[in-house]
Design a protein that fits this description.
With 403 residues, the chain is an alpha/beta fold. It has two domains: 145 residues, Creatine Amidinohydrolase, Chain A, domain 1 (3-Layer(aba) Sandwich); 243 residues, Alpha-Beta Complex (Creatine Amidinohydrolase). It is 33% helix and 18% strand. Strands 4-3-2-1-5-6 form a six-stranded mixed β-sheet. Helix 9 packs antiparallel against helix 10. The longest helix has 24 residues.
Length: 403
């Protein structure tokens, strides 16, 4: 059962985390591996419910087949681990990086204390650390006397299909994303700066969300519960899919692309809408309608057993028929869950099949330099029949005109 108030879902239960850990241990036993060494923070959260801010300071989670689940990391995380999870049974820390004694050398001592010398250890990153912010250090595989086995795909493969509880969290995230998108459209106007709109929409949604969900709600993977923004995708800059910002104000006639994500239990949906400020031009309408038609084709192609490339092919075919294929700059979509982008990739080069329980975005787009970009993104649950669309903000042009 999920933790929460009434039917509102806040987090994955400890029982489900334990099931995930037991699944890990069964795989380790089957492969004759004595322990799993994880450096990926998302994998740690998936298994234990503990999330932290990755910095230059090395951190790892050790899951032995037999023995105590142990966190290795900086002293500043010691109290945080104990606050966030009961599944980490031991915490071994060093003071800081780079330290008089390098953290990797501390890790060598910790692993010896755990009795893992000369054992088989599965590892998700042979450096033994996620190198960030100027980190330098020797790989653990050269410092510690053990046989390291590449198991980088183990946890990500477990995350591909979602449990009922995970689906419920993304469904709840989608509800609040719809509210935030509404605020984005309501607050957008000629003369406004897109960053100001983003702050206000994110803040107002978060306040209502907290009041509604109550004292037990907290974001678990994000600093802010709601992230709503145009991200500089304003006017001609909407033709830059990963624009970061713009200094100019919104003008009449601009195409703007709103994006929203909401953290519920560490899981998030993705909702994006192309909007037009004031009356639309014939060219804008043509591009907009082609984009919506392509997205509809993607919706129809997403189902259990369908190959990922078939979804991308379906949307690209629509753009090609419209004479706009040259404006496509990215694939149709990607997986969603604990990260904004995760497998599976809805890409022409991906022959892997979709499976019921996967959650993906469907976001075909077209972009003309100096003119505008057109992209909706919705979050869909793969089922054995038609995919279920979890986000439900209006997609038609009339509903997305900003007066």
């Amino acid at each position: 059962m999920l933790l929460g108030c009434g039917q509102v879902k806040f987090s994955i239960s400890e029982a489900e985390h334990k099931q995930r850990i037991e699944r890990i241990r069964r795989v380790l036993q089957k492969r004759n591996v004595d322990a799993l060494y994880l450096t990926n923070g998302t994998s740690m959260f998936y298994l234990t419910g503990y999330s932290f801010i990755s910095t230059e300071r090395p951190a790892a989670l050790i899951i032995p087949v037999d023995g105590r689940i142990t966190f290795l990391g900086p002293l500043l995380e010691e109290d945080n681990v104990q606050l966030k999870t009961r599944l980490v049974e031991d915490v071994k820390t060093y003071r800081d990086y780079p330290g008089e004694k390098h953290p990797i050398d501390h890790f060598v001592d910790f692993l010896r204390q755990m009795g893992l010398a000369r054992k088989h250890i599965g590892i998700d990153n042979k450096a033994g650390v996620v190198g960030m912010w100027g980190y330098k250090g020797p790989p653990i595989t050269r410092r510690f006397e053990a046989k390291f086995v590449d198991m980088s795909d183990l946890v990500p493969s477990m995350r591909l299909t979602k449990s009922e509880d995970e689906i419920a969290l993304v469904r709840e995230s989608s509800k609040w994303a719809n509210l935030a998108c509404g605020f984005m459209q309501e607050y957008a106007c000629e003369g406004a700066w897109d960053a100001e709109i983003a702050y206000k929409a994110s803040r107002d949604t978060a306040i209502i969300m907290k009041k509604t969900l109550g004292s037990d709600y907290e974001p678990m993977r994000s600093i802010f519960p709601v992230t709503a923004y145009f991200r500089g995708q304003v006017g001609a800059f909407s033709a830059i899919p990963h624009s970061m910002a713009t200094r100019r104000m919104i003008k009449k006639g601009d195409v703007v692309i709103a994006e929203v994500g909401v953290d519920v239990g560490g899981y998030t949906c993705e909702l994006e809408r192309t909007m037009i400020v004031g009356n639309s031009t014939q060219k804008q309408r043509r591009y907009f309608e082609a984009m919506v038609k392509a997205q509809n084709a993607g919706f129809e192609a997403i189902r259990d057993g369908a190959k990922c490339y078939a979804v991308d092919n379906a949307t690209f075919k629509v753009f090609k028929q419209a004479g706009l294929a040259h404006l496509v700059k990215h694939h149709t979509g990607h997986g969603l869950g604990l990260e904004g982008h995760e497998p599976p990739w809805l890409d022409l080069g991906n022959v892997e099949p979709l499976k019921a329980g996967m959650i993906v975005s469907c976001e075909p787009g077209i972009y003309e330099k100096g003119f505008a970009g057109f992209r909706h993104s919705d979050t869909l649950l793969v089922t054995r029949g038609d995919a279920e669309t979890l986000t439900y903000y209006p997609r038609d042009l009339d509903a997305l005109i900003i007066d």
